[in-house]
Write a structure and sequence with these properties.
Layout: H1 2-10, H2 17-44, E1 48-50, H3 52-65, H4 70-82, H5 93-96, H6 98-113, H7 116-122, H8 130-136, H9 140-155, H10 158-180, E2 202-203, H11 212-217, E3 231-232, H12 233-243, E4 247-249, H13 267-275, H14 277-300, H15 305-315, H16 324-334, H17 338-355, H18 361-378, H19 381-392
Parallel strand pairs: 2-3
Antiparallel strand pairs: 1-4
Helix pairs in contact: 1-9, 2-3, 2-4, 2-10, 4-7, 6-10, 9-10, 14-15, 14-17, 15-16, 17-18, 18-19
Length: 394
Amino acid sequence: MERYLQWMAEGLVAPSWWQLLLIGLVATHVTIVTVTIYLHRCQTHRSLQLHPIVAHCCRFWLWLTTGMVTREWVAVHRCHHAHCETEQDPHSPIVFGIHRVLWRGAELYRDAVGDLAMLDRYGRGGPADWLERRIYGRYTWQGVGLLLLIELGLFGAPGLTLWACQMMWIPFLAAGVVNGLGHYAGYRNYDCKEAATNIIPFGLLIGGEELHNNHHTFPTSAKFSVRWFELDIGWAYISILRWMGLASLRRPPRRLLRCAGQIVPTLATLRLVLGNRAVLTRELTLLTLDVFQAERTGLAKLVPHAALAQTKRLLRHAPWRLTDAQQADLAQVTGHSARLDAMHVARQALEKIWERSPATQEELLAGLQAWCVNAERYGPRPLQRFARHLASYG
């Protein structure tokens, strides 16, 4: 009896507290990495293809540690992207409030998977083999129940604490922090239409999902980091899997490469530019801010300091995000500087080309060619250089 009670208290392994903590950190980290690589980047956005053995290991680990079904997770996240920040968004803090999404995000997820029409529309393309139909998708709670028995047997009573932490890890970090803070607080590299933010530049704790603004700007990219100081640990693991031949990119990123001697945009230029418009929009915004900074001394003699501060803030946003009142306030300042006004007008004109999605390729190309000609002919030097570089991409 004494040995039995000792086994119940300590388990077969009897780890110390720091060993149990280390085991918990490793296990939860593997779960986070599995969610971001398998569920998010591979299954939802199809930016990555995993070797069948790796994919099945991910499915088994998720069944064991979370009880989540691939089809359900994929459907909820695709619905989120399709209806972001609207009433149809399953977990928008803009709609439900930050506190509800942050602390009760798992409840919103469960409510969403109850919508069978949504699951049928957005959950297609996932695994549908015998294991998925008969075990992983059918016996969802049995997986986490098995994990509880394993950890109780190995670690005794402390295993219950470890299991409870694992059960809270994904609901809080993924369903709460990413879906909540990732649309509420942080910094933005790109002024995308969604309210997505980068929570912090170091994507370690949540596998790279911290870089949420980057992801919403380039949803089909398997890499979430875009700036030199940003770290996406999920991409580091993907790179290792690619090196081992266990993963491949379905949509390799198309880099902006210049063609020597090309001075007029081509159809190849158009496709490349449209695919990288977030990058180009940000580059043009930074050039506009540089011109504003150079003109600021002269503008300070003509407009109040408060108006200059507001102008800098407004120039950071894409023109389409500005209200009519903000556009009018901005025009009162840019009207005092021909160089700054030319930059802002060029941004608006280029944005109109981006938005002409129903137009034919020939019409879009003609618009892009005309924009480059006008920018080189009438724009300040930064805009001229930008237009020349843009015209040479191909």
